[in-house]
């Protein structure tokens, strides 16, 4: 809270600096001098000098104070920050002269800020990679990489005492990978046909009015929070599938992969359909008209001409959708199982990488147990796989776009 | 048909036969065309049917969360019970007084058959919610003159009574078999109260004014909603300036080189990173490295802003690109510097587009759950947060928590919370659409 008050104080000083700098410039002009920049630029110049050094010092100091807390840390920091602020104001005001190119200095600073802002995106990626890699390396110090990637048994429960049975836990993630692939596969089996056919309908058959009405409705599916889908999958779809299964004599687990996968598929439908729609509408009319001219029906044109031409773009869209399915968390956390189960039967309960990350990290963690660290190793695998899918998909889509532009 | 072609047809066979074959093939092709068209229609219909089922299901389960059962009871504000032996009636004493006795007495008088048996007494008393005592406490604190009077009040009923009244409780068979949450005897009392007109469904104000609770009838969404509000405010405060700065830099100022290319590819990839990975980033960086408090909306806002940033950057760049170059050139022609062009012309003209993108990004952030689980905004928190540093949950996380709860009455609360969340999302999306329609302009 004190740092918030300090920020407010610095901003007040900066506002005063703006006024003072401006007034000084106006006074010069009134005295007959020719100003290099507008008075407002001189104001901004003084304001920046009173705010920026002080706020930088505050940020650094607050970070350092968190590490070496002492009784004098906070008051000393406040004093330094305020001194910097007022000192910056006085110095900059002193430098305000008719010939001083204030606008260049102000614009240079603003440019630097804009550049810094755009670095945040890079920093985020670096942060993700560093935090995942750092913790994953600690994990691989205890459990070999090969066990994680090729081991067939997953039971991360480490015992409290060394002499308990299975005290080491086993970290073979293959059942998780298979479960993830199974659920994503079911999701894509639902999403690709429905999404692609909807896109074809909207782009080729639907009248403009119908299209304008239906497209936003489909997009609503994409706007529904995943936790709502999870609730729906767990409380409505899964019991329904179980009942149907019982009716035909099948034994369906109450957390079957089918329920989670099907609902996830519906969630992805608008993703596939809007990407495919964009690609299909981007196909030049000439191709279609040539096909009609040869006597082809509309569906023949779509299947033999439009779809092959649009295929790279559609594949790119589907790859993006797969990466989304693999990384989807809430639906599977709520509707898929917890026990690692190496099976390809969609009626059984399987677990996924994301479910395990959540179960391992929700609640109290100790950052020196293999159990907690394994979540970071799993997340690293997840990140790399989705990244690979995205890079390939973006490449495919980009190359395809160039083809028709 | 020309003579030459007729002759050719004659040589290869009967002309009518060729026509016949073509016609038959054409019929098949048209049939296939119709089938394909219908398949496409069915695909759209399937998606829409699912959407409809989802909404009907959630509304059907959730509408009753906005109502709650109340029971009309006589309450005897007996001074002996409140402050024995003439002690002062201050708030402290009130908190320790046996306030439940105020309504328990008259209730036991009414159903005198339950008064003798301990088990029956407990069963009868459990029909009224624990929340009743807080209500009485507030009433007395507000108006001490109540003491010594006898009033008839509508008090909150227990969640099981509430479910029974809404027709969601166990059916008669289950009750008879002793499997329901209410015994046969309790159901009998409820029936008696209902026939006497002493049981009603009223508007459930507590759902909007309470924090979380273990008692379904007392649980509300205010804590989670405020947690979401703080989180979103912080996300907005970080995302909007940073997103606009990045977009302006990349679109208007940056030279085209490898470095800018790297930033661009990076942003596109960040937009597709699974949201849970951002949660892990928040856990490792904000909590473990910087030592920020767990479960705080501040950290939630930071994490969600990193997640939303790419979306906003992309939307802002699109908006900046729609400003025609002639505007920039005109300003340059008048001697403006690049930043003056941006500040005075490009940004104001692209602002509606940027805002639309921001609202949509915020809507996504509002519905996001997984990253918040990672940074501990998933605890059971009764208190309503008053600053962004207090522990809190968010609306979607509250939904997740309630959906996990085994008690049946929480299903209704979960759906109710979903309805509130969806209402906010619809509001945000509608305002984005409205803004876009209103400010759309063709150059």
Describe, in plain words, how this protein is organized in 3D.
The complex is a heterodimer of chains A (405) and B (443). By secondary structure, chain A is an all-alpha fold. Chain A folds into two domains: 136 residues, no CATH class; 235 residues, MetI-like fold. Chain A has 14 helices and two strands; from the N terminus they run αααααββααααααααα. Chain A has a two-stranded antiparallel ribbon with strand order 1-2. Helix content of chain B is 67%, strand content 5%. A three-stranded antiparallel β-sheet of chain B has the order 2-1-3. In chain B, helix 12 packs parallel to helix 15 and helix 12 runs antiparallel to helix 17. Chain B is extended and about 95 Å long.
Reconstruct the topology from this structure.
The complex is a heterodimer of chains A (405) and B (443).
Chain A: H1 2-30, H2 39-67, H3 73-95, H4 102-140, H5 145-150, E1 154-155, E2 170-171, H6 174-205, H7 208-223, H8 226-247, H9 257-282, H10 285-293, H11 298-327, H12 330-335, H13 353-361, H14 370-404
Antiparallel strand pairs in A: 1-2
Chain B: H1 3-12, H2 15-62, E1 67-76, H3 79-82, H4 91-96, H5 100-110, H6 118-125, H7 131-142, E2 150-156, H8 159-165, H9 172-176, H10 184-195, E3 199-203, H11 206-209, H12 222-253, H13 258-270, H14 275-289, H15 297-321, H16 325-333, H17 338-367, H18 370-374, H19 395-404, H20 409-439
Antiparallel strand pairs in B: 1-2, 1-3
Helix pairs in contact in B: 2-20, 12-15, 12-17, 12-19, 14-15, 15-17, 16-17, 17-20, 19-20
């Amino acid at each position: 809270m004190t740092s918030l008050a300090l920020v407010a104080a610095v901003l007040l000083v900066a506002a005063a600096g703006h006024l003072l700098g401006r007034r000084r410039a106006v006074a010069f002009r009134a005295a007959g001098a020719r100003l290099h920049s507008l008075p407002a630029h001189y104001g901004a110049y003084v304001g920046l000098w009173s705010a920026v050094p002080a706020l930088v010092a505050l940020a650094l100091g607050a970070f350092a104070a968190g590490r070496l807390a002492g009784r004098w840390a906070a008051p000393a920091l406040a004093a330094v920050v305020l001194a910097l602020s007022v000192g910056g104001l006085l110095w900059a005001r002193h430098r305000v002269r008719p010939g001083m190119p204030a606008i260049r200095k102000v614009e240079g600073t603003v440019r630097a800020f804009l550049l810094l802002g755009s670095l945040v995106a890079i920093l985020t990626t670096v942060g993700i990679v560093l935090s995942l890699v750092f913790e994953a390396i600690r994990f691989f110090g205890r459990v070999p990489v090969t066990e994680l990637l090729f081991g067939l048994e997953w039971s991360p429960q480490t015992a409290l005492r060394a002499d308990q049975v299975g005290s080491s836990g086993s970290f073979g993630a293959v059942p998780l990978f298979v479960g993830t692939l199974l659920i994503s596969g079911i999701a894509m089996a639902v999403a690709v046909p429905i999404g692609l056919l909807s896109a074809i309908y909207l782009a080729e058959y639907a009248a403009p009015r119908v299209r304008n009405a239906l497209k936003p409705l489909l997009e609503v599916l994409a706007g529904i929070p995943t936790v709502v889908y999870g609730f729906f999958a767990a409380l409505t779809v899964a019991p329904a599938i179980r009942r149907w299964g019982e009716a035909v004599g099948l034994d369906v687990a109450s957390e079957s992969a089918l329920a989670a996968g099907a609902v996830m598929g519906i969630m992805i439908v608008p993703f596939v359909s809007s990407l495919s729609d964009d690609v299909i509408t981007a196909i030049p009319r000439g191709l279609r008209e040539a096909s009609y001219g040869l006597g082809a029906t509309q569906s023949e044109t779509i299947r033999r001409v439009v779809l092959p031409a649009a295929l790279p773009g559609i594949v790119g869209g589907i790859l993006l959708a797969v990466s989304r399915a693999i990384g989807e968390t809430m639906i599977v956390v709520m509707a898929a199982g917890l026990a690692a189960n190496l099976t390809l039967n969609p009626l059984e309960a399987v677990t996924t990488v994301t479910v395990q990350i959540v179960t391992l990290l929700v609640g109290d963690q100790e950052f020196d147990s293999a159990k907690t660290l394994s979540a970071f190793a799993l997340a690293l695998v997840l990140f790399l796989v989705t990244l690979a899918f995205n890079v390939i998909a973006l490449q495919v889509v980009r190359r395809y776009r160039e083809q028709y532009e | 048909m020309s003579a030459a072609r007729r002759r050719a047809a004659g040589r290869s066979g009967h002309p009518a036969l060729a026509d016949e074959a073509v016609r038959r093939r054409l019929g098949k092709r048209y049939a296939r065309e119709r089938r394909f068209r219908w398949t496409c229609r069915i695909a759209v219909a399937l998606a829409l049917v699912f959407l409809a089922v989802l909404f009907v299901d959630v509304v059907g389960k959730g509408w009753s969360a906005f109502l709650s059962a109340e029971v009309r009871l006589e309450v005897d504000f007996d001074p002996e019970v409140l402050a024995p032996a003439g002690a002062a009636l201050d708030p402290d004493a009130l908190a320790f007084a046996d306030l439940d006795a105020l309504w328990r007495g008259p209730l036991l008088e009414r159903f005198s058959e339950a008064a003798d048996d301990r088990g029956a007494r407990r069963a009868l008393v459990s029909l009224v919610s624990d929340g009743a005592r807080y209500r009485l406490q507030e009433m007395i604190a507000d108006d001490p003159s109540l003491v010594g009077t006898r009033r008839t009040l509508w008090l909150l009923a227990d969640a099981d009574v509430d479910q029974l009244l809404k027709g969601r409780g166990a059916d008669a068979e289950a009750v008879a078999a002793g499997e329901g949450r209410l015994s046969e005897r309790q159901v009998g009392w409820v029936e008696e109260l209902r026939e006497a007109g002493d049981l009603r469904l009223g508007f459930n104000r507590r759902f909007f004014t309470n924090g979380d609770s273990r008692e379904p009838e007392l649980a509300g969404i205010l804590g989670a909603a405020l947690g979401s509000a703080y989180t979103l405010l912080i996300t907005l405060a970080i995302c909007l300036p940073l997103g606009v700065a990045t977009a302006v830099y990349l679109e208007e100022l940056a030279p085209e080189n490898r470095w800018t290319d790297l930033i661009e590819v990076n942003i596109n990839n960040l937009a597709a990173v699974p949201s849970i990975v951002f949660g892990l980033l928040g856990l490792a960086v904000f909590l473990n490295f910087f030592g920020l408090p767990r479960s705080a909306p501040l950290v939630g806002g930071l994490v969600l802003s990193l997640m939303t940033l790419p979306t906003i950057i992309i939307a802002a760049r699109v908006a900046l690109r729609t400003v025609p170059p002639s505007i920039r050139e005109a300003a340059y022609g008048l001697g403006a510097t690049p930043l003056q062009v941006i500040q005075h012309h490009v940004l104001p003209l692209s602002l509606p587009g940027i805002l639309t993108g921001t609202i949509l990004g915020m809507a996504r952030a509002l519905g996001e759950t997984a990253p918040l689980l990672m940074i501990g905004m998933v605890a059971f928190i009764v208190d309503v947060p008053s600053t962004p540093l207090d522990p809190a949950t968010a609306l979607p996380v509250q939904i997740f928590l309630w959906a996990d709860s085994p008690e049946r009455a929480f299903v209704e609360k979960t759906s109710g919370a979903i309805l509130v969340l969806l209402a906010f999302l619809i509001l945000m999306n509608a305002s984005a659409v409205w803004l876009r329609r209103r400010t759309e302009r063709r150059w």
